[in-house]
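Note to self: keep these together.
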Amino acid sequence: MKMDRRQLPLNALRAFEAAAISCHLGRAAEQLGVTQGAVSQQIRSLETSLGQELFVRKHKRLYLSPAGQRLLDAVSEGLDRMTQGIIQLDADSQSMAGELVLCSTPSITNNLLMSVIGRFNRTYPEVSIRLSQIVPNARVLPDEFDVCVCFGLPDDTSHLETRRLHTTRLYPVASPSLTLHRPAIEDGAELLNYPLLHDRAKGWTHWFNQFANGEVKGLEANIFYSDNYQSLMAARLGQGVALAEYYEVAADLTSGQLMLLHNKGIEMGIDSYLVLPKKDRQTLRGRVFADFIEQHLEDLASHFPPDKA
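Structure:
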Protein backbone atom coordinates (compact mmCIF):
# COMPACT_ATOMS: atom_id res chain seq x y z
CA MET A 1 0.00 0.00 0.00
CA LYS A 2 1.33 3.45 -0.92
CA MET A 3 0.86 6.38 1.44
CA ASP A 4 2.72 9.67 1.80
CA ARG A 5 2.74 12.08 4.72
CA ARG A 6 -0.04 14.20 3.21
CA GLN A 7 -2.38 11.24 3.58
CA LEU A 8 -1.46 10.26 7.14
CA PRO A 9 -4.66 9.93 9.25
CA LEU A 10 -3.12 11.46 12.38
CA ASN A 11 -6.28 11.40 14.51
CA ALA A 12 -6.87 7.74 13.68
CA LEU A 13 -3.23 6.91 14.47
CA ARG A 14 -3.50 8.64 17.86
CA ALA A 15 -6.66 6.69 18.62
CA PHE A 16 -4.99 3.47 17.53
CA GLU A 17 -1.93 4.10 19.74
CA ALA A 18 -4.06 4.85 22.79
CA ALA A 19 -6.10 1.68 22.27
CA ALA A 20 -3.08 -0.48 21.40
CA ILE A 21 -1.09 0.44 24.51
CA SER A 22 -3.81 -0.79 26.89
CA CYS A 23 -5.75 -3.04 24.47
CA HIS A 24 -8.86 -1.38 25.90
CA LEU A 25 -11.16 0.96 23.95
CA GLY A 26 -12.70 2.49 27.07
CA ARG A 27 -9.34 3.54 28.51
CA ALA A 28 -8.29 4.93 25.15
CA ALA A 29 -11.48 6.97 24.92
CA GLU A 30 -10.98 8.35 28.44
CA GLN A 31 -7.38 9.28 27.67
CA LEU A 32 -8.34 11.09 24.44
CA GLY A 33 -11.46 12.74 25.87
CA VAL A 34 -13.81 11.19 23.29
CA THR A 35 -16.43 8.44 23.26
CA GLN A 36 -15.59 4.76 23.00
CA GLY A 37 -17.61 4.65 19.80
CA ALA A 38 -15.45 7.37 18.26
CA VAL A 39 -12.28 5.40 19.05
CA SER A 40 -13.80 2.23 17.59
CA GLN A 41 -14.81 4.08 14.43
CA GLN A 42 -11.32 5.58 13.99
CA ILE A 43 -9.73 2.15 14.32
CA ARG A 44 -12.16 0.55 11.84
CA SER A 45 -11.45 3.35 9.37
CA LEU A 46 -7.70 2.85 9.82
CA GLU A 47 -7.98 -0.91 9.31
CA THR A 48 -9.97 -0.31 6.13
CA SER A 49 -7.44 2.21 4.81
CA LEU A 50 -4.50 -0.09 5.55
CA GLY A 51 -6.22 -3.29 4.48
CA GLN A 52 -4.92 -4.92 7.67
CA GLU A 53 -6.53 -6.26 10.83
CA LEU A 54 -4.84 -4.40 13.71
CA PHE A 55 -6.59 -6.13 16.61
CA VAL A 56 -7.69 -9.68 17.31
CA ARG A 57 -10.74 -10.18 19.50
CA LYS A 58 -10.72 -13.29 21.69
CA HIS A 59 -12.85 -14.13 24.71
CA LYS A 60 -14.24 -10.56 24.82
CA ARG A 61 -10.71 -9.09 24.99
CA LEU A 62 -8.59 -7.16 22.52
CA TYR A 63 -5.13 -8.29 21.47
CA LEU A 64 -2.78 -6.71 18.95
CA SER A 65 -2.32 -8.58 15.70
CA PRO A 66 1.26 -8.91 14.35
CA ALA A 67 0.51 -6.02 11.97
CA GLY A 68 -0.91 -4.01 14.87
CA GLN A 69 2.25 -4.53 16.92
CA ARG A 70 4.44 -3.35 14.06
CA LEU A 71 2.25 -0.30 13.54
CA LEU A 72 2.27 0.52 17.28
CA ASP A 73 6.08 0.51 17.33
CA ALA A 74 6.22 2.85 14.32
CA VAL A 75 3.45 5.20 15.52
CA SER A 76 4.82 5.48 19.08
CA GLU A 77 8.30 6.28 17.83
CA GLY A 78 6.97 8.88 15.40
CA LEU A 79 4.72 10.61 17.93
CA ASP A 80 7.51 10.58 20.52
CA ARG A 81 9.87 12.28 18.10
CA MET A 82 7.31 14.94 17.21
CA THR A 83 6.51 15.58 20.87
CA GLN A 84 10.15 15.89 21.87
CA GLY A 85 10.83 18.13 18.89
CA ILE A 86 8.08 20.52 19.99
CA ILE A 87 9.17 20.47 23.64
CA GLN A 88 12.77 21.16 22.76
CA LEU A 89 12.33 23.92 20.16
CA ASP A 90 14.25 26.40 22.29
CA ALA A 91 17.29 24.12 22.30
CA ASP A 92 17.80 24.50 18.56
CA SER A 93 19.24 27.99 18.87
CA GLN A 94 21.76 27.06 21.59
CA SER A 95 24.63 24.62 21.79
CA MET A 96 23.90 21.29 23.50
CA ALA A 97 27.45 19.95 23.13
CA GLY A 98 29.22 19.01 26.35
CA GLU A 99 28.89 16.65 29.31
CA LEU A 100 25.62 15.83 31.08
CA VAL A 101 26.09 14.50 34.63
CA LEU A 102 23.20 12.37 35.95
CA CYS A 103 22.81 10.89 39.41
CA SER A 104 20.23 8.41 40.64
CA THR A 105 19.74 5.15 42.52
CA PRO A 106 20.70 1.85 40.81
CA SER A 107 17.05 0.78 40.53
CA ILE A 108 15.80 4.03 39.00
CA THR A 109 18.78 4.22 36.65
CA ASN A 110 18.47 0.67 35.35
CA ASN A 111 14.70 0.33 35.30
CA LEU A 112 13.62 3.83 34.27
CA LEU A 113 16.39 6.17 33.12
CA MET A 114 17.97 3.78 30.61
CA SER A 115 15.01 4.22 28.27
CA VAL A 116 15.18 8.01 28.62
CA ILE A 117 18.96 8.05 28.09
CA GLY A 118 18.60 6.06 24.88
CA ARG A 119 15.97 8.40 23.48
CA PHE A 120 17.92 11.51 24.53
CA ASN A 121 21.15 10.19 23.01
CA ARG A 122 19.48 9.53 19.67
CA THR A 123 18.22 13.11 19.63
CA TYR A 124 21.39 14.80 20.95
CA PRO A 125 24.38 12.57 20.09
CA GLU A 126 26.71 15.52 20.69
CA VAL A 127 26.06 15.28 24.45
CA SER A 128 28.39 13.08 26.53
CA ILE A 129 26.52 11.43 29.41
CA ARG A 130 28.13 10.48 32.74
CA LEU A 131 26.26 8.58 35.46
CA SER A 132 26.77 8.92 39.21
CA GLN A 133 25.18 6.56 41.73
CA ILE A 134 23.39 7.55 44.94
CA VAL A 135 21.55 5.45 47.51
CA PRO A 136 17.78 5.57 48.16
CA ASN A 137 16.88 8.32 50.63
CA ALA A 138 20.29 9.95 50.14
CA ARG A 139 20.62 12.77 52.65
CA VAL A 140 23.35 14.57 50.64
CA LEU A 141 23.75 14.73 46.85
CA PRO A 142 27.02 14.98 44.88
CA ASP A 143 28.55 18.46 44.58
CA GLU A 144 28.25 18.62 40.80
CA PHE A 145 25.39 17.27 38.69
CA ASP A 146 23.00 18.44 35.98
CA VAL A 147 20.01 16.22 36.82
CA CYS A 148 19.35 13.89 39.74
CA VAL A 149 16.40 11.54 40.21
CA CYS A 150 16.05 10.83 43.93
CA PHE A 151 14.01 8.34 45.89
CA GLY A 152 13.15 10.70 48.73
CA LEU A 153 14.40 14.28 49.09
CA PRO A 154 17.86 15.18 50.49
CA ASP A 155 18.04 17.14 53.73
CA ASP A 156 19.04 20.54 52.31
CA THR A 157 17.15 21.67 49.19
CA SER A 158 17.73 25.42 49.61
CA HIS A 159 20.23 25.43 46.70
CA LEU A 160 18.18 23.07 44.52
CA GLU A 161 15.11 23.04 42.31
CA THR A 162 12.91 20.03 43.07
CA ARG A 163 9.92 18.59 41.24
CA ARG A 164 7.91 15.65 42.54
CA LEU A 165 7.73 12.98 39.84
CA HIS A 166 5.32 10.50 41.41
CA THR A 167 4.34 8.77 44.62
CA THR A 168 5.90 5.33 44.90
CA ARG A 169 3.29 2.59 44.59
CA LEU A 170 4.49 -1.02 44.55
CA TYR A 171 2.77 -3.90 42.71
CA PRO A 172 3.44 -7.66 42.80
CA VAL A 173 5.16 -8.72 39.57
CA ALA A 174 6.67 -11.98 38.34
CA SER A 175 7.83 -13.77 35.23
CA PRO A 176 4.94 -15.50 33.41
CA SER A 177 6.97 -18.71 33.66
CA LEU A 178 6.42 -18.70 37.42
CA THR A 179 2.65 -18.92 37.04
CA LEU A 180 2.47 -21.68 34.44
CA HIS A 181 -0.05 -24.41 35.32
CA ARG A 182 -1.20 -22.42 38.36
CA PRO A 183 -4.66 -20.87 38.77
CA ALA A 184 -5.10 -17.11 38.42
CA ILE A 185 -4.65 -15.18 41.65
CA GLU A 186 -7.95 -13.81 42.92
CA ASP A 187 -7.02 -12.96 46.50
CA GLY A 188 -3.87 -11.28 47.80
CA ALA A 189 -3.24 -14.05 50.33
CA GLU A 190 -2.71 -16.49 47.45
CA LEU A 191 0.66 -14.82 46.80
CA LEU A 192 1.84 -16.70 49.88
CA ASN A 193 2.02 -19.79 47.67
CA TYR A 194 4.85 -18.24 45.65
CA PRO A 195 8.48 -17.47 46.55
CA LEU A 196 8.63 -13.86 47.69
CA LEU A 197 11.57 -11.63 46.78
CA HIS A 198 12.39 -9.06 49.45
CA ASP A 199 14.60 -5.97 49.53
CA ARG A 200 15.46 -3.43 52.19
CA ALA A 201 12.23 -1.46 51.62
CA LYS A 202 10.36 -4.31 53.40
CA GLY A 203 7.31 -3.66 51.25
CA TRP A 204 5.76 -7.11 51.58
CA THR A 205 4.80 -6.54 55.21
CA HIS A 206 2.91 -3.37 54.24
CA TRP A 207 1.34 -5.02 51.18
CA PHE A 208 -0.04 -8.03 53.08
CA ASN A 209 -1.28 -5.80 55.90
CA GLN A 210 -3.40 -3.84 53.44
CA PHE A 211 -4.49 -6.41 50.87
CA ALA A 212 -4.36 -9.80 52.62
CA ASN A 213 -5.52 -9.04 56.16
CA GLY A 214 -1.95 -9.11 57.43
CA GLU A 215 -1.41 -12.80 56.66
CA VAL A 216 2.30 -13.52 56.41
CA LYS A 217 2.44 -17.16 57.52
CA GLY A 218 2.98 -20.21 55.36
CA LEU A 219 5.45 -18.64 52.96
CA GLU A 220 6.74 -21.08 50.37
CA ALA A 221 10.10 -19.31 50.27
CA ASN A 222 11.78 -16.02 51.09
CA ILE A 223 14.74 -14.64 49.20
CA PHE A 224 16.29 -11.44 50.52
CA TYR A 225 18.19 -8.97 48.32
CA SER A 226 19.96 -5.78 49.29
CA ASP A 227 18.06 -3.52 46.90
CA ASN A 228 15.09 -3.33 44.55
CA TYR A 229 17.21 -3.62 41.41
CA GLN A 230 18.42 -7.08 42.49
CA SER A 231 14.94 -8.30 43.41
CA LEU A 232 13.58 -7.20 40.02
CA MET A 233 16.39 -8.98 38.19
CA ALA A 234 15.51 -12.11 40.17
CA ALA A 235 11.83 -11.72 39.24
CA ARG A 236 12.75 -11.49 35.56
CA LEU A 237 14.65 -14.76 35.94
CA GLY A 238 11.57 -16.47 37.40
CA GLN A 239 12.86 -16.79 40.97
CA GLY A 240 9.76 -15.39 42.62
CA VAL A 241 7.43 -12.42 43.07
CA ALA A 242 8.86 -8.95 43.61
CA LEU A 243 7.22 -5.68 44.55
CA ALA A 244 7.92 -3.08 41.88
CA GLU A 245 7.11 0.51 41.08
CA TYR A 246 5.03 0.45 37.91
CA TYR A 247 7.09 3.12 36.16
CA GLU A 248 10.21 1.00 36.57
CA VAL A 249 8.74 -2.16 35.02
CA ALA A 250 6.42 -0.70 32.36
CA ALA A 251 8.68 -1.94 29.55
CA ASP A 252 8.77 -5.44 31.09
CA LEU A 253 4.98 -5.52 31.35
CA THR A 254 4.56 -4.37 27.76
CA SER A 255 7.04 -6.93 26.40
CA GLY A 256 5.62 -9.74 28.56
CA GLN A 257 8.85 -10.37 30.46
CA LEU A 258 6.96 -9.60 33.67
CA MET A 259 3.26 -9.68 34.53
CA LEU A 260 1.13 -8.15 37.27
CA LEU A 261 -0.12 -10.74 39.75
CA HIS A 262 -2.43 -8.30 41.55
CA ASN A 263 -3.72 -4.93 40.39
CA LYS A 264 -3.49 -3.19 43.77
CA GLY A 265 -0.40 -1.26 44.74
CA ILE A 266 0.84 -0.23 48.15
CA GLU A 267 2.06 3.32 48.73
CA MET A 268 5.31 3.46 50.69
CA GLY A 269 5.02 7.08 51.79
CA ILE A 270 8.12 8.12 49.85
CA ASP A 271 8.05 10.08 46.60
CA SER A 272 10.51 10.19 43.73
CA TYR A 273 11.85 13.62 42.80
CA LEU A 274 13.53 15.30 39.88
CA VAL A 275 16.28 17.52 41.27
CA LEU A 276 18.25 20.19 39.43
CA PRO A 277 20.57 22.97 40.63
CA LYS A 278 19.02 26.41 41.05
CA LYS A 279 18.16 28.11 37.76
CA ASP A 280 21.29 30.26 37.60
CA ARG A 281 23.44 27.07 37.74
CA GLN A 282 21.37 24.89 35.42
CA THR A 283 22.65 23.83 32.02
CA LEU A 284 20.55 23.67 28.88
CA ARG A 285 21.45 19.97 28.66
CA GLY A 286 20.05 19.40 32.15
CA ARG A 287 16.79 21.24 31.46
CA VAL A 288 16.26 19.35 28.22
CA PHE A 289 16.97 15.97 29.84
CA ALA A 290 14.56 16.82 32.67
CA ASP A 291 11.87 17.47 30.05
CA PHE A 292 12.61 14.05 28.52
CA ILE A 293 12.09 12.36 31.91
CA GLU A 294 8.78 14.10 32.56
CA GLN A 295 7.52 13.36 29.05
CA HIS A 296 8.47 9.69 29.43
CA LEU A 297 6.52 9.41 32.70
CA GLU A 298 3.57 11.27 31.18
CA ASP A 299 3.49 8.75 28.34
CA LEU A 300 3.46 5.86 30.80
CA ALA A 301 0.80 7.45 33.00
CA SER A 302 -1.55 7.79 30.04
CA HIS A 303 -2.62 4.15 30.39
CA PHE A 304 -1.61 3.10 33.93
CA PRO A 305 -1.17 2.60 36.92
CA PRO A 306 -3.61 -0.32 36.96
CA ASP A 307 -5.47 0.46 40.18
CA LYS A 308 -6.25 3.90 38.74
CA ALA A 309 -7.51 2.49 35.43
